[in-house]
Amino acid sequence: MDNKTKSIIRRLIPGLIFGFLVFLVIILMGDLRQVATQVYEFRWEYYPLVLLLTLFNYLLRFFKWHFYLGLVGVEKFPLLRSAQLFLAGFPLAVTPGKVGEALKAVWLQKETGVPTSRGISVVLAERISDGLGVLILSTLGVIAYPQYWPAFAFVLGGLIILILVIQIRPAALWLLDLGTKLPLIKRFSEGIKEFYEGSYSLFRPKAILVAVSIGTISWLGEGIGMYLILVGLGVTSGWGTLSIAVFVLAFSTVIGAVTALPGGLGAAEASIAGMLTLLLALSRDTAAAATILIRFATLWFAVFLGLTVWLFSRKLLFSETDD
């Protein structure tokens, strides 16, 4: 295992500790006994369905990852190897600012020879297409609850501007040439150009349409999972509850992402619990229980799957490489 890999893995530890502390705070938002009672009395027959919906999300996002690999020149890459790299990236989401996800690009370079900078462009494209997908799912909720409009507009505007800058090739190349004249950037010029070429291919209109469509459908799966958790806690079922559940999970995912906190920890949980209390008039105990259950079925389920892949794919992921 090389030093860069060890460094990134060490960064997982603060994220895992922070995650534990966040759950502690969420529980203490209500009454400890009441929250425990809510979780105990949850209709657990719903939970396997919630996990299946989470897996549905991961399956579609994997196909998007593999689709992206083809766009940056990775051809005939075995699906199993591709899936291993995709799943192995999940624990890296709990590194500060998710910077550890760059390790996926290192693994990809080892397996396929594609430049690391192009691999990083795939990681970025995954995040942006997911972000646009959850923003689409948030649209109706933002219309119904205009107090969330500023944050929605800020994130959407930022993503659109970024995509436009990448796709207006003369302007992007001019900025790249300008940047390479700066001493601190000049030595990274080749890597930056590779990153740009990868990003340009990934954000072409057809590619972004396919990716955002996949992202929207995949994240809808987790939104339905949020709905099942609410029903399992005794919240009245129906289209109204379903639409709010999808909105809450999608918008909280956006909030967690823009904070750059590990896995959105703290921000996403506070957003979920707060919005459930505000929009569905749930008690703090029920909102806390729902938050704990959905985060275990999504973020922490993903971390568990990823660490399992690490355990059985150590040669693939962590063999020594030349720096």
* Topology, number of strands: 0
Helix count, per DSSP? 17
Give the strand content.
Answer: under 5%
Mean of residue pLDDT? Answer: 83
Q: What is the CA-based Rg, rounded?
A: 20 Å
The SSE string, one letter per element, is HHHHHHHHHHHHHHHHH
What general form does the structure show?
Answer: globular
What gap, in angstroms, lies between the N and C termini?
11 Å
The major β-sheet equals:
none
Unreliably modeled segments: none
Tell me the structural class.
mainly alpha
Short description:
The protein has helices at residues 3-10, 12-29, 32-40, 47-71, 79-88, 102-112, 116-144, 149-167, 169-179, 183-186, 189-202, 205-232, 239-258, 267-280, 284-297, 299-312, 314-318. By secondary structure, the protein is mainly α.
